[in-house]
Design the sequence.
């Protein structure tokens, strides 16, 4: 495994692989790797000759009052995990490598970025789209692997790649959960024991929604109301949003049909957690 910091060095290191036709799989991360990231790396390992993992806490996607400074950065642990999973290259750019002092070019995916998490986190998805575009330009992978837990982010990146004619396949892999249903997230580390138990209400609310859909419920308003009732029983929980939208356009649906994304963001104590499921009718 090679760790590389300068973007041009990584680009040149991968040039031989590109010329020889070896497929390159790419997993973008902000570090603090967990089993969800590992599942993406293993999928990439199965399907590609070369695996690249990036570790970069991207300041452009954090708001002024968000957790940029305290975001977990266990680099030695992350590198050990990558080595164990036989990653070929770990890309560790500095902020200066990515954003020069006079940096002024950003990528914004309209419409998709202004809903759901985009309402509470203005500018967040502009930062995501910008960094992923830069990483794709540097690495030029055949496939990028993303997790379903960050559904809106994955949909935005897929649309961005298509709109900008970036020749990469976007592969979205299932959410990885702990045995009790909690979706894995680097921010779970912020939860104390009581909050960790309360956080289970997110997956329970989604399970309730799925049960209602499978029982024939068609009204998004009714389903959302039942989810709110369940979550409101937890004193530590504050709902940011619950939404049922079209799984491709992210537009609200009036009736459950086709493929719908049921997504929610809930603050447990001071920690904002997101989760979602896709239902097909």
Sequence:
């Amino acid at each position: 495994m090679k760790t590389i910091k300068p973007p041009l060095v990584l680009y040149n290191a991968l040039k031989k692989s590109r010329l020889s036709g070896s497929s390159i799989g790419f997993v973008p991360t902000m570090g603090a790797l967990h089993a969800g990231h590992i599942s993406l790396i293993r999928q990439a390992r199965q399907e590609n000759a070369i695996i690249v993992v990036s570790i970069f806490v991207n300041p452009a996607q954090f708001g002024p009052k968000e957790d940029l400074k305290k975001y977990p950065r266990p680099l030695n642990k992350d590198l050990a995990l990558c080595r164990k999973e036989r990653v070929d290259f770990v890309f560790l750019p500095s902020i200066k490598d990515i954003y020069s002092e006079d940096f002024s070019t950003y990528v914004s995916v309209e419409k998709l970025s202004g809903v759901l998490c985009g309402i509470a986190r203005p500018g967040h998805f502009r930062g995501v789209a910008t960094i992923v575009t830069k990483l794709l330009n540097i690495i030029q992978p055949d496939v990028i692997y993303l997790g379903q837990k960050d559904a809106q982010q994955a949909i935005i990146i897929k649309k961005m790649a298509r709109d900008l004619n970036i020749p990469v396949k976007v592969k979205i892999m299932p959410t990885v959960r702990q045995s009790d249903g909690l979706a894995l997230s680097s921010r779970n580390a912020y939860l104390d024991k009581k909050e960790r138990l309360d956080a289970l209400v997110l997956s329970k609310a989604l399970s309730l929604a799925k049960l209602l859909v499978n029982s024939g419920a068609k009204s998004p308003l009714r389903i959302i109301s039942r989810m709110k009732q369940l979550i409101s029983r937890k004193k530590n929980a504050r709902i940011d949003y619950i939404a049922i939208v079209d799984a491709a356009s992210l537009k609200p649906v009036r009736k459950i049909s086709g493929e719908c994304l049921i997504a929610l963001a809930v603050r447990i104590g001071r920690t904002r957690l997101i989760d979602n499921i896709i239902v097909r009718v």
